[in-house]
């Protein structure tokens, strides 16, 4: 590691599994002090132990439901107080439900909005006064290529809408945050190998193979580190004049019609 984030304090949501584990590990390895959270107490404890064993400076709080605005505020306030500062807010946490437009229940729609869009808003809103007080910082929101195009192999109405909202929210954060030194950017992953997608990728439906996997120009699905590589750049001073961008990390797949 190169110490690109030395001296920075990063708040990362959803570090208990998937891309969140790699985000916590990598940002610490690059020199940041990290405060993470996860809905799962077990996942939070596991990630904290993993990163500390590797020499990282990290505190992870479990049982945090960011879809509750009060819990989001309480976590952010405690996280900022942990190392007395905030330079990076990495909104990685996300949970969704899928279904066709005429089959997805209202409850599943509301669940997805709460756990993919609302929790980003609540966390940013809670962090905003801290970012202003500490002279600015970098907000990194995780979107999806599902927000940029229709997805052929499975219905993603709520997921696409929520992630589209994350991208739109980010653009407004750019405008409102600029005068305070706050930058905001999005990373939109394509099909990425995580525990949630492991079963699907192990035995992909024929339609998914034909319209997605066989059409990735770089010839492979993404890995968590592919996404986190982009996040490290956006968190670092190397991107100090970048705000409002959406970095698509999908092996080139979304350029194909």
TrEMBL record:
Which keywords accompany this UniProt record?
Answer: Oxidoreductase
Query: Is the keyword RNA-binding assigned to this protein?
Result: no
Keyword Nucleotide-binding applies:
no
Record-linked InterPro entries = NAD(P)-bd_dom_sf, SDR_DHRS6-like, SDR_fam
Looking up CDD domains in the UniProt record yields: SDR_c (cd05233)
An example of a GO molecular function for this protein is:
oxidoreductase activity
Q: Which family does it belong to?
A: Belongs to the short-chain dehydrogenases/reductases (SDR) family.
The identity of this protein, by name, is SDR family oxidoreductase
Give the species this sequence originates from: Nocardioides islandensis
The opening ranks of the lineage are: Bacteria, Bacillati, Actinomycetota, Actinomycetes, Propionibacteriales
């Amino acid at each position: 590691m190169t110490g690109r984030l030395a001296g920075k304090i990063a708040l990362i949501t959803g570090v208990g599994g998937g891309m969140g584990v790699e985000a916590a590990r990598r940002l610490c390895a690059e020199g940041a002090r990290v405060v993470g959270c996860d809905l799962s107490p077990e996942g939070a404890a596991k990630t904290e132990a993993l990163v500390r064993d590797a020499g990282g400076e990290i505190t992870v709080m479990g049982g945090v439901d960011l879809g509750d605005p009060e819990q989001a505020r309480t976590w952010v306030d405690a996280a900022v107080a942990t190392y007395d500062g905030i330079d990076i807010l990495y909104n990685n946490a996300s949970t969704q439900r899928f279904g066709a437009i005429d089959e997805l229940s209202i409850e599943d729609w509301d669940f997805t909005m709460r756990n993919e869009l609302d929790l980003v808003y609540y966390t940013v809103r809670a962090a905003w006064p801290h970012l202003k007080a500490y002279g600015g910082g970098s907000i990194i929101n995780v979107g999806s290529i599902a927000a940029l195009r229709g997805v052929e192999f499975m219905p993603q109405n709520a997921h696409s809408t929520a992630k589209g909202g994350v991208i739109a929210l980010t653009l407004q954060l750019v405008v409102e945050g600029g005068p305070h030194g706050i930058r905001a950017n999005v990373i939109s992953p394509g099909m990425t190998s995580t525990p949630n997608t492991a079963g699907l990728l192990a035995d992909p439906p024929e339609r998914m193979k034909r319209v997605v996997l066989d059409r990735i120009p770089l010839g492979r699905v993404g890995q968590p580190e592919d996404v986190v590589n982009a996040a490290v750049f956006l968190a670092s001073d190397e991107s100090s004049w970048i705000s409002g961008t959406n970095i698509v990390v999908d092996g080139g797949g979304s350029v194909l019609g």
